[in-house]
Amino acid sequence: MLALLSILGLVGSAKAADNGLARTPQMGWNTWNKFACDISENLILSAGKAIVATGLKDLGYNCGYQRTSPCVSMTQGAMHSRCRSWHAASREAGTGKPVADSTRFPNGIKHLSDNIHSLGLKIGIYSSAGLYTCGRRFGSLGYEQIDAKTYAEWEIDYLKYDNCYNEGRHGTPLISYERYANMSRALNATGRPILYSMCNWGEDGTWNWATEIANSWRMSGDIKDTFAGYDDRCPCTSMLDCKLPGYREFKFAGQFCIPIFTLSKDCSVARILDFAAPLGQKAGPGRWNDLDMLEV
């Protein structure tokens, strides 16, 4: 289980295949749907033990992770609170290293990683290719090398890498490619195999350029727990010509950050399957289209 605090074809400088991972699509557990921001060291360890006890580990669900995404309130539209997740409020002074929330993870991420590994499972972590995560904690843009090195020191096995607060570094495949390739290179440089799961919502035709730098890539807006719904929250009829597949920009109003663009968010299971249908040839061992989390 990847218990995360719970991966391009323009240039070939970094290849997902270099890490030897995800020869088949990853299987695991993600904290977000059930627990959202309310995660902790004890919760992750308890979940890991449950995955073993229920036999899910033996079925291949060996990767689970804690993720932080925004906490959502549906009053006055979608409003996103500052979600703490595993992140402390700021990086370590002087070094710039990522730091875990000492209240939720009092023994640190390495301690949790050791305990998850002792169960025969794997552990994953979440960050964003932006100044901040979607929950307004520190992101990894500009800190790729130091974050990748720290994840390797913590013996992390999986990185889910989001797209919030990206400083406008999108709009063409090359711009998006370089932003995500920076983390791919940094992960490969650590020498530790870390499955790289890109989450840029299919922006700039991810499936055309992520195949050499990532083990998986989200190819649509966020999934919604409905199977056949088609509505204006997910208006694109095809990802091949969808210009705004997910959140694009945010603005702050008091303590909340409000999405300005929300096209193709809250996509139904059926809509994402439709999106994915013509993209199968892009996938293969070590590189996969990511249709978002399994809804049950």
UniProtKB/TrEMBL annotation:
Species, as recorded: Rhizoctonia solani
Catalytic activity: Hydrolysis of terminal, non-reducing alpha-D-galactose residues in alpha-D-galactosides, including galactose oligosaccharides, galactomannans and galactolipids
GO molecular function terms attached to this record: alpha-galactosidase activity
Protein name: Alpha-galactosidase
Stretch forming the signal peptide: 1-16
Keyword terms: Disulfide bond, Glycosidase, Hydrolase, Signal
Metal-binding among keywords: no
EC number: 3.2.1.22
Family in the record: Belongs to the glycosyl hydrolase 27 family.
UniProt enzyme class: hydrolase
GO terms classed as biological process: carbohydrate metabolic process
